[in-house]
Design a protein that fits this description.
Elements: H1 25-30, E1 38-40, E2 44-45, E3 47-53, H2 59-72, E4 75-76, E5 80-81, E6 86-91, H3 96-106, E7 119-122, H4 128-142, E8 146-152, H5 167-185, E9 188-194, H6 212-216, E10 219-226, E11 229-236, E12 242-249, E13 252-258, H7 259-278, H8 284-291, H9 295-308, E14 312-315, E15 318-320
Helix pairs in contact: 4-5, 8-9
């Protein structure tokens, strides 16, 4: 008796289970979405945010500044009003003694301590794959207005890499559950991280490790310092890219202004200082030699300064601080 032919594979009866969930563009454009939940407006919103910077630059002080501002409904960096809410600071690098000393530094003797009951601290925590998010969820459901979680630093809760994945895949899959938890509940999770020693042209490329972390994050903030001072660079999926000049004095961070404007102001001050020290008009070449800046950059800046009335061309290709040549 001949063998029977194999029966054909049964057709899937419920094709709807295999279909994409599609949305018509007209329906999409008519939808109403809630605005982004601002935690520290212009910088931190509901979702997963990275705050990266070199060691000893003041990342923890900045995170504490933001945490205190949110927990008290106060002002961050001396300039940004923050809606009040509950904050959990997971500090895995400093013990209670150092935490206390830093809070006291923010409110020195003679200055009354505000009510900080909405800012809570944790100094021990499991790795992210061993119950960390479960503990975040218990905190979230135990407080009245969960707004901000700080993890200082992310490396302390990161599990070993998966040998079956490359570094990018391993980092992305590690942090994706944390990003999902943060965005689904509208809570800001701010993770502190380090920069590579060599740096990079693109601030996001300067983060230590693979690009999987910055790719997973909703927003990345880079605290950096160069010859022009300290800056805070922000780039996110839903917020405007910006770079702000900041200063750090005795534990307190303060905003100065747009970094490009501050740099221009500093460069102009150098030109004016060189002219004043010389006590007479100078050519672009002389200013270049005096300041150590490229001649082409000096010429461009002098053109702008002359246009705005900061310097004057007084003859012989020379510039001075008034329209009258003192010689």
């Amino acid at each position: 008796m001949p063998a029977q032919e194999s029966a054909p594979i049964a057709a899937v009866s419920n094709t709807a289970a295999l279909e994409f969930k599609r949305t018509n563009t007209n329906d999409l454009m008519a939808a109403k979405f809630a605005p982004l939940k601002a935690i520290v407006p212009d910088y931190v919103y509901g979702g997963f945010t990275i705050l990266a910077g070199r060691q000893k630059l003041g990342k923890t002080w900045l995170a504490i500044d933001w945490s205190v501002a949110v927990a008290t409904g106060g002002v961050a960096m001396g300039a940004i009003d923050c809606p009040e809410g509950d904050v959990l600071y997971v500090d895995l690098e400093n013990g209670p003694r150092r935490i206390q000393s830093r809070i006291r530094a923010l409110f020195p003797e003679g200055q009354s301590l505000p009510d900080l009951s909405r800012l809570e601290w944790v100094t021990e925590a499991p790795q992210i794959d061993r119950g960390f998010i479960d503990r975040l969820e218990l905190w979230r459901t135990s407080v009245r207005q969960p707004r901000l979680v700080v993890i200082d630093v992310l490396q302390r809760i990161k599990p070993p890499g998966n040998k079956n994945q490359n570094a990018y895949e391993s980092d992305y899959s590690t942090w994706a559950p944390l990003q999902k938890w943060a965005t689904s509940h509208g809570v800001a999770v701010l993770g502190l991280h380090h920069l590579k020693k060599g740096g990079a042209d693109d601030p996001l490329e300067a983060l230590s490790g693979s690009n999987g972390l910055s790719a997973c994050a909703d927003t990345t903030i880079v605290l950096n310092q160069d010859q022009n001072g300290k800056t805070l660079y922000v780039r996110g999926r839903d917020i405007e890219e910006k770079e702000t000049a900041v200063i750090f004095v005795t534990g307190r961070w303060s905003l100065v202004g747009n970094a490009a404007d501050v740099r221009r102001s500093g460069e102009r001050a150098v030109i004016l200082g060189a002219l004043t020290d010389n006590a007479g008009p100078m050519t672009p070449g002389e200013l270049s030699a005096a300041t150590g800046k490229l001649s082409a950059n000096i010429r461009q800046l002098l053109f702008k300064m002359a246009k705005s009335g900061d310097v004057y061309k007084v003859g012989g290709g020379r510039y001075w601080v008034s329209p009258i040549d003192p010689q």
